């Protein structure tokens, strides 16, 4: 072997990159630790994966993920590389169901720059168009964490394979494309397939040098054996697996850029997790804010619907709105005093003057009416009146949310512009309907409770 990969000098000095990757993973873990309980629950798996990535970096482990369609010989390939029956091989497609980590100890290899590095071969379930979506998904997720992917195929690429390759290439995964089951092809057909794989179709996806041929578990062949006396007999034997070309290629890639690959992979992984955390945090916070606004709008609706005197309506309403604003502030990580919350509510109400004014008139008129009537009349007026007040709180809540989203400021807008925008984007009728339903439910519940 003239081009012994072990003698190849690493192309890139990556100590700085490696340290940067270690700190980016560490930072992502620290960010996670600052998450709320609810965020942690959703991110539990991401956190586990980050921890694993941190351990992997510390150990200097290289994960080579074997990936591809079902029954292409992924498991057989790992067995042939390791030289033993470490993973299960079967004629039945879809045999491997979980991710298997197989330490490639026999290889006795260390990535340059990582004295105690270990190489691990990761067996994954096969991709399958028709069944096993979940398994395909875990295989993809495993490939997305790989330092190097062995993409195994046993024929020309179909659409599933081609798009999976594109996906990997788009995330900058280094790929070795393995054409397995070479024993099933004539020399000529094999050559044609190789030319196809090294040709234009996979340009920028797989480096032509990274296309290799193997036979991991060749079919038995009939051998003609000639005895010394010239007589012949035939015998069925299994040819030896052929994976040495692949082995060499793997070592060459690892030698040239192993450490850089691990660092790049970890850094991209941490960045991706960081983005996910950020996006989730926003999503959860917004969902919680919506819930808070809605529950205070309902509370306000009920307070107004169930109180007969206008003065109580107004007082109760302001207190509810101020508490809502304090609660919203907490969600956005801002502590606001009750008196500041009241001031904010007042300024929102002032900016939305015309809306509140019209509602106050409705509120006053129907409160007087409510005080004078009894029985069903009360319910009939309480519904629209309570809903209108609840709608007011809903709008105040949305405006306060905007204010907190923009770091306790109105940003470049005036409060009036913000509220006009909110009003334009709110389906008033449907909010009123939903509030009426809530009030209706509560009032009829109370009525039945009273009857008992
Ligand atoms: N002729 C031939 N058959 C092979 C070769 N490699 C694997 N096979 C056969 O292909 C079948 C599938 O092999 P596996 O290693 O189980 O394939 P896999 O990709 O792990 O399959 P799943 O885990 O089901 O996705 C088995 O019957 C193997 O014996 C090869 O080089 N030549
Ligand atoms: Mg398998």
UniProtKB/TrEMBL annotation:
Superkingdom of origin organism: Bacteria
GO molecular function, one term: GTP binding
Subcellular location: Membrane
The name this protein goes by in its record: GTPase Era
Residues annotated as domain G: 64-181
GO BP terms, alphabetized: tRNA methylation; tRNA wobble uridine modification
Xref: SUPFAM superfamilies: P-loop containing nucleoside triphosphate hydrolases
InterPro entries membership: DUF697 (IPR021147), GTP-bd (IPR006073), P-loop_NTPase (IPR027417), Small_GTP-bd (IPR005225)
């Amino acid at each position: 072997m003239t081009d012994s990969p072990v003698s190849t000098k690493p192309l890139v000095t990556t100590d700085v990159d490696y340290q940067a990757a270690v700190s980016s993973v560490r930072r992502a873990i620290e960010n996670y630790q600052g998450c709320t309980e609810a965020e942690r629950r959703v991110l539990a798996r991401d956190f586990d994966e980050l921890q694993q990535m941190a351990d992997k970096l510390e150990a200097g482990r290289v994960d080579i993920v074997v990936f591809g369609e079902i029954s292409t010989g992924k498991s057989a390939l790992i067995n042939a590389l390791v030289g033993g029956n470490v993973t299960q091989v079967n004629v039945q497609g879809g045999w491997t169901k979980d991710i298997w980590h197989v330490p490639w100890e026999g290889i006795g290899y260390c990535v340059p720059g990582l004295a105690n590095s270990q190489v691990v071969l990761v067996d994954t379930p096969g991709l399958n168009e028709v069944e096993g979506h979940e398994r395909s998904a875990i295989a993809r997720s495993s490939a997305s964490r790989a330092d190097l992917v062995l993409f195994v195929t046993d024929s020309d690429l179909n659409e599933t394979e081609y798009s999976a390759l594109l996906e990997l290439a788009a995330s900058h995964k280094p790929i070795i494309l393995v054409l397995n089951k070479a024993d099933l092809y004539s020399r000529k057909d094999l050559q044609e397939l190789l030319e196809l794989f090294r040709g234009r179709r996979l340009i920028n996806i797989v480096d032509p040098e990274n296309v290799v041929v193997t036979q991991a578990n060749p079919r038995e062949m009939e051998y003609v054996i000639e005895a010394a006396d010239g007589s012949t007999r035939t015998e069925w034997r299994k040819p030896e697996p052929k994976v040495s070309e692949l082995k060499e290629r793997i070592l060459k890639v690892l030698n040239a850029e192993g450490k850089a690959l691990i660092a790049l992979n970890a850094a991209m992984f941490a960045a991706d997790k960081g983005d996910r955390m950020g996006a989730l945090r926003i999503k959860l916070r917004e969902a919680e804010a919506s819930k808070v606004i809605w529950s205070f709008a309902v509370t306000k609706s009920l307070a107004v619907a169930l109180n007969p005197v206008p003065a109580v309506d107004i007082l109760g309403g302001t207190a509810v709105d101020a508490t809502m604003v304090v609660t919203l502030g907490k969600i956005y990580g801002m502590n606001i005093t009750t008196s500041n919350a009241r001031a904010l509510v007042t300024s929102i109400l002032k900016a939305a003057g015309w809306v509140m004014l019209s509602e106050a008139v409705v509120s006053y008129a129907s409160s007087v009416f409510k005080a004078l009537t009894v029985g069903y009349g009360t319910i009939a007026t309480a519904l629209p009146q309570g809903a209108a007040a609840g709608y007011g709180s809903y709008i105040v809540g949305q405006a306060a949310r905007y204010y907190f989203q923009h770091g306790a400021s109105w940003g470049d807008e005036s409060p009036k512009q913000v509220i006009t925008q909110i009003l334009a984007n709110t389906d008033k009728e449907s909010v009123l309907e939903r509030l009426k339903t809530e009030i209706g439910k509560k009032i009829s519940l109370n009525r039945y409770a009273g009857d008992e």
